[in-house]
Amino acid sequence: MDDSCATLIGLGASSISRLPTGYVQNAPATAAYVQRILAGQLAGARGHMMTEDDLLRARDIEMLMCDFRLDRAGLRDRYGPLAGQLDAEIALVADRFGNFVTVTDEALEIAPAGRPLTRIIASAFDAHVPDGMRYSQAS
Protein backbone atom coordinates (compact mmCIF):
# COMPACT_ATOMS: atom_id res chain seq x y z
CA MET A 1 0.00 0.00 0.00
CA ASP A 2 1.30 3.45 -0.91
CA ASP A 3 1.53 6.17 1.72
CA SER A 4 0.63 9.42 -0.03
CA CYS A 5 1.28 11.66 2.99
CA ALA A 6 3.40 14.63 1.91
CA THR A 7 4.83 15.23 5.39
CA LEU A 8 6.98 12.95 7.54
CA ILE A 9 8.16 14.34 10.87
CA GLY A 10 11.48 13.02 12.17
CA LEU A 11 11.83 12.80 15.95
CA GLY A 12 15.17 12.74 17.74
CA ALA A 13 18.67 13.97 17.15
CA SER A 14 19.80 13.92 13.51
CA SER A 15 16.39 12.76 12.25
CA ILE A 16 15.16 14.09 8.94
CA SER A 17 11.69 15.48 8.28
CA ARG A 18 10.22 15.53 4.78
CA LEU A 19 7.89 18.39 3.93
CA PRO A 20 6.08 19.07 0.63
CA THR A 21 8.73 21.66 -0.26
CA GLY A 22 11.91 20.18 1.20
CA TYR A 23 13.80 18.49 4.01
CA VAL A 24 14.85 19.56 7.51
CA GLN A 25 17.43 17.74 9.64
CA ASN A 26 17.34 18.04 13.40
CA ALA A 27 20.48 18.99 15.30
CA PRO A 28 22.77 15.98 14.94
CA ALA A 29 24.24 16.02 18.45
CA THR A 30 21.85 14.77 21.13
CA ALA A 31 22.89 17.54 23.57
CA ALA A 32 22.20 20.28 21.00
CA TYR A 33 18.88 18.65 20.06
CA VAL A 34 17.74 18.49 23.71
CA GLN A 35 18.94 22.04 24.37
CA ARG A 36 16.84 23.37 21.48
CA ILE A 37 13.75 21.49 22.64
CA LEU A 38 14.14 22.65 26.27
CA ALA A 39 14.54 26.25 25.06
CA GLY A 40 11.23 25.96 23.19
CA GLN A 41 12.95 26.19 19.82
CA LEU A 42 12.53 24.06 16.73
CA ALA A 43 15.05 21.22 16.60
CA GLY A 44 15.91 21.74 12.93
CA ALA A 45 19.53 22.62 12.29
CA ARG A 46 19.64 22.61 8.50
CA GLY A 47 17.41 22.05 5.53
CA HIS A 48 16.95 22.09 1.80
CA MET A 49 14.20 23.84 -0.15
CA MET A 50 13.41 21.65 -3.14
CA THR A 51 13.08 23.03 -6.66
CA GLU A 52 10.64 21.57 -9.20
CA ASP A 53 13.58 19.63 -10.67
CA ASP A 54 14.42 18.26 -7.19
CA LEU A 55 10.79 17.17 -6.71
CA LEU A 56 10.76 15.44 -10.12
CA ARG A 57 14.04 13.63 -9.41
CA ALA A 58 12.95 12.63 -5.91
CA ARG A 59 9.80 11.04 -7.33
CA ASP A 60 11.83 9.34 -10.06
CA ILE A 61 14.31 7.87 -7.56
CA GLU A 62 11.48 6.80 -5.26
CA MET A 63 9.80 4.94 -8.15
CA LEU A 64 13.01 3.10 -8.99
CA MET A 65 13.87 2.24 -5.39
CA CYS A 66 10.36 1.07 -4.48
CA ASP A 67 8.94 -0.35 -7.72
CA PHE A 68 12.04 -0.99 -9.89
CA ARG A 69 10.16 1.03 -12.51
CA LEU A 70 10.22 4.66 -13.57
CA ASP A 71 6.77 5.50 -14.95
CA ARG A 72 7.71 7.98 -17.69
CA ALA A 73 4.08 8.57 -18.70
CA GLY A 74 3.11 9.26 -15.08
CA LEU A 75 5.97 11.72 -14.69
CA ARG A 76 4.94 13.51 -17.90
CA ASP A 77 1.36 13.74 -16.62
CA ARG A 78 2.49 15.13 -13.27
CA TYR A 79 5.43 17.36 -14.28
CA GLY A 80 4.70 18.15 -17.94
CA PRO A 81 7.67 19.14 -20.12
CA LEU A 82 9.97 19.18 -17.08
CA ALA A 83 9.91 15.35 -17.15
CA GLY A 84 11.85 15.49 -20.42
CA GLN A 85 14.89 16.63 -18.42
CA LEU A 86 15.36 12.99 -17.40
CA ASP A 87 15.75 11.76 -20.98
CA ALA A 88 19.55 12.17 -20.99
CA GLU A 89 19.92 10.16 -17.77
CA ILE A 90 17.51 7.50 -19.05
CA ALA A 91 19.61 7.11 -22.20
CA LEU A 92 22.79 6.96 -20.11
CA VAL A 93 21.32 4.28 -17.83
CA ALA A 94 20.11 2.26 -20.84
CA ASP A 95 23.59 2.42 -22.37
CA ARG A 96 25.48 1.73 -19.14
CA PHE A 97 23.28 -1.07 -17.76
CA GLY A 98 22.23 -2.80 -20.98
CA ASN A 99 20.17 -5.94 -20.34
CA PHE A 100 19.66 -5.03 -16.69
CA VAL A 101 17.12 -2.36 -17.74
CA THR A 102 14.39 -2.01 -20.34
CA VAL A 103 13.46 1.41 -21.71
CA THR A 104 10.26 2.25 -23.59
CA ASP A 105 8.38 5.50 -24.17
CA GLU A 106 6.26 4.60 -21.15
CA ALA A 107 8.81 3.33 -18.62
CA LEU A 108 12.31 2.42 -17.55
CA GLU A 109 12.21 -0.93 -15.78
CA ILE A 110 14.95 -2.67 -13.85
CA ALA A 111 15.04 -6.37 -14.72
CA PRO A 112 15.14 -8.87 -11.83
CA ALA A 113 18.81 -9.59 -12.59
CA GLY A 114 19.56 -5.86 -12.32
CA ARG A 115 17.83 -5.24 -9.00
CA PRO A 116 21.02 -5.54 -6.93
CA LEU A 117 22.17 -2.47 -8.92
CA THR A 118 19.08 -0.40 -8.10
CA ARG A 119 20.87 2.14 -5.86
CA ILE A 120 23.54 2.70 -8.48
CA ILE A 121 20.96 3.04 -11.26
CA ALA A 122 18.86 5.47 -9.19
CA SER A 123 21.92 7.59 -8.39
CA ALA A 124 22.16 8.48 -12.08
CA PHE A 125 19.09 10.69 -11.56
CA ASP A 126 20.34 12.44 -8.40
CA ALA A 127 21.44 15.94 -9.42
CA HIS A 128 23.20 16.36 -6.06
CA VAL A 129 25.61 13.43 -6.50
CA PRO A 130 28.98 14.73 -7.68
CA ASP A 131 29.79 13.58 -11.23
CA GLY A 132 32.85 11.62 -10.10
CA MET A 133 30.72 9.67 -7.62
CA ARG A 134 28.18 8.33 -10.11
CA TYR A 135 28.36 4.61 -10.76
CA SER A 136 30.88 3.98 -8.01
CA GLN A 137 31.45 0.37 -7.06
CA ALA A 138 28.88 -1.03 -4.66
CA SER A 139 30.41 -2.50 -1.55
Describe this entry's structure for a reader.
- The chain has 139 residues and is of the alpha+beta class.
- The protein folds into two domains: 1-50, no CATH class; 52-127, Orthogonal Bundle (Arc Repressor Mutant, subunit A).
- The chain has five helices and six strands.
- Strands 1-2-3 form a three-stranded antiparallel beta sheet, with no helix packed on it. A three-stranded antiparallel beta sheet has the order 4-6-5.
- The longest helix has 16 residues, at 52-67.
- The two termini are 31 Å apart.
- The model is unreliable at 135-139 (pLDDT under 50).
Short description:
Keywords: Oxidoreductase. 36% of the residues lie in helices and 18% in strands. With 139 residues, the protein is an alpha+beta fold.
Major sheet summary line: 3 strands, antiparallel
H/E topology pattern: EEHEHEHHEEH
Q: What would the average pLDDT be, to the nearest integer?
A: 90
Oligomer: single chain
Keywords: Oxidoreductase
GO molecular function: coproporphyrinogen dehydrogenase activity
Protein name: Coproporphyrinogen-III oxidase
Enzyme class: oxidoreductase
Give structural attributes.
single chain; 139 residues; alpha+beta; Arc Repressor Mutant, subunit A; 2 domains; three-stranded antiparallel β-sheet; 5 helices; elongated; disordered C terminus; rSAM_sf; oxidoreductase; Coproporphyrinogen-III oxidase; EC 1.3.98.3
Topology:
Elements: E1 16-19, E2 22-26, H1 30-38, E3 44-49, H2 52-67, E4 69-71, H3 72-79, H4 87-97, E5 101-103, E6 107-110, H5 118-123
Antiparallel strand pairs: 1-2, 2-3, 4-6, 5-6
GO molecular function: coproporphyrinogen dehydrogenase activity
Keywords: Oxidoreductase
Protein name: Coproporphyrinogen-III oxidase
